[in-house]
Structure formats: structure tokens, C-alpha cells
Amino acid sequence: MTRIRRTENGGFSLLELLVAATVMTLAILGSLSAHAGSQKLARNARDTERAMSDLQAALEEVLLSPLEEVTTDFPNGAPIAAYDDLHLTGEQIVVTYPNFVGGTPPDPLEVAVTVTWRGNAAGTRSLSLNTAMTR
What we know:
The chain has one domain (14-133). Helices cover 42% and strands 20% of the residues. The radius of gyration is 28 Å and the shape is rod-shaped. It has helices spanning 14-63, 67-73; strands spanning 92-96, 109-119, 123-133. The protein has a 3-stranded antiparallel beta sheet with strand order 1-2-3, with helices on one face. The longest helix is centred in the N-terminal third of the chain and has 50 residues, at 14-63. The relative contact order is 0.14. By secondary structure, it is an alpha+beta fold.
């Protein structure tokens, strides 16, 4: 069993106090680092949830258009203006049609909707949803 030595006046030695202060400082810094990391994860999760919600709303809007008009209502590769910077910094939602090159839309028509935004220190982030439309 380890015993702590006391100085002549009954207190702790300076070395023991420095070691204890160093250990306590490291523990506090580790705790603060973990807290900052959890805040960053929570912010990223919140941003991802907002982006997915906007992406689902945009996809529903696209799917409500008739198949014959969807490619003119939502041009291939063009952003949907209503979603520009809606909830996130630099947010943009773009509709593409991977199996469509022009003319009459095929049946079924593949639809891809992608949201991109600038995350906090994470750079540009994006999510996509794909589906198919038919008559």
C-alpha cells in the first residue's frame, strides 16, 4: 500500500501537488475534448436530418408532377430554387434523370434528387435519393 508522505508541517510536498495538478488538468482537458467532439457530432446529425427532410420534400414535389411534364417542370441538372439556402448554408437541391437524354420521358423514368450543403468544418456534404416514376 502506498502512503503519501507529509512534509514537516503536515502538508503535502510540492512535487506531489504538481503531479496531482497535472493529472487533474489532463482529466479536465480530456473531458472538454470529448464534450467538443460530441457537440460537433450533434451539429452534423442535426444538419443531416434537416438536409434529409428537405430532400424528401423536394422528391415529393417532383413526384407530384405528371410524367410528361416533370422534365420541363424540373430541368435535368438544374437546382430547385425554392430550396436554395433554405435551412443550411449553401444548400442546393438538384434533380437529375440518369436514363433520360431528351425528348419524351421514358416509362419508367429514373429520378435522382441530390442535396448539397457546406457543413461546419466538414467541407461540402451531400445526400441523394433515387426513385422511378411511371404513368
